[in-house]
Design goal:
By secondary structure, the chain is mostly beta strands. It has two helices and nine strands, in the order ααβββββββββ.
């Protein structure tokens, strides 16, 4: 149950609310978000780590703690939406993404903070 909760929270590339107490830039434009793909990423939420790969065509594959799931990503206006077959039960989780240093940051409706970054390019 903890793994499912962590994965679901991680995959909520989430709501457009700013992260409380953190200096976060304005949300990224649609064109900036789509430039992230294709790419490989690591995400951190509540101390858990999930690796995922997104294709330019909209498919996504995630791996966490020996478990793998597939799904798709798409843009809805300026919001990034992600749906995984098992982890989100096919339900799309959408939100605006801001950048904080080398991390992309979003906050879920439940207050869970999601941080993710590229792993296939050099980090600052």
């Amino acid at each position: 149950m903890i793994l499912r909760t962590a994965l679901a929270a991680t995959l909520i590339v989430a709501a457009s609310l700013p992260v409380s107490g953190l200096a976060v830039a304005a949300p990224l434009a649609r064109s900036e978000v789509t430039k992230l793909f294709p790419g490989q990423f690591e995400a951190q939420v509540k101390g858990y780590r999930v690796n995922f790969t997104g294709s330019r065509g909209g498919s996504i594959v995630g791996v966490a703690y020996g478990q793998q799931d597939t799904g798709h990503w798409y843009m809805k206006g300026a919001a990034l939406c992600v749906a995984f077959d098992k982890w989100t039960k096919g339900e799309a989780k959408c939100g605006r993404i801001s950048q904080q240093g080398g991390w992309y940051v979003a906050q879920g409706n439940g207050g869970d903070v999601l941080k993710f970054r590229r792993t296939d390019i050099a980090q600052n």
